[in-house]
Write a structure and sequence with these properties.
By secondary structure, the protein is an all-alpha fold. It contains 10 helices and no strands. The chain is flat, with a radius of gyration of 27 Å. This is Helix-turn-helix.
Length: 172
């Protein structure tokens, strides 16, 4: 077999210990064994998932969203799609709620929340704090503020017409 010859050649060149540490050798299994392995894995995953409470699952989901926000904030690139409204929509989706329900829970009108989601109204600090409290501190208010700051930073940095317009007010 070609695989046996390859293995023998590698063994002669590198030795058994070096091969074991530096190579992964493929395991060849037939279709039945693959099917059994996949079924066993699915069964194990289902069992593990069933042990997670709905509250813990929600915490994990919100923590994942927090990391997505923080990863984006740590990127140098600005993405015009990743606005406060985008992440607020993700927050609502992860909760499995409707906007109206969240609006009620953070004591704002559904219309007002919709304006934040659509980025037609700036998210005030009071609402940032309410969202932090609502998420049980998983998504800090500072993350919402940082999203706004990232957008404003980009808009200021990229606004050459504003710079040209303001030159008339400065003596150089």
């Amino acid at each position: 077999m070609a695989d046996d010859k390859l293995f023998d050649d590698l063994l002669k060149q590198h030795g058994a210990e070096e091969l074991a540490q530096s190579h992964v050798f493929p395991v060849i299994i037939d279709a039945r064994e693959e099917q059994e392995t996949n079924a066993s894995l699915q069964e194990t995953l289902s069992l593990k998932r069933s042990l997670i409470s709905p509250e813990d699952e929600l915490k994990l989901t919100l923590t994942q969203l927090r990391y997505q926000i923080e990863d984006y904030l740590n990127e140098d690139n600005y993405d015009p799609k990743k606005t406060v409204g985008f992440f607020l929509t993700e927050y609502i989706r992860n909760l499995g709620k409707k906007q109206k329900s969240l609006a009620s829970e953070i004591n704002v009108s559904a219309t007002e929340l919709n304006q934040y989601v659509k980025n037609s109204r700036a998210l005030p600090m009071e609402i940032m704090v309410r969202l932090e409290l609502h998420s049980h501190g998983i998504i800090p208010a500072e993350n919402w503020l940082a999203l706004i700051s990232k957008e404003k930073f980009h808009l200021l940095k990229a606004n050459e017409p504003l710079r040209e317009q303001q030159k008339q007010f400065v003596i150089i």
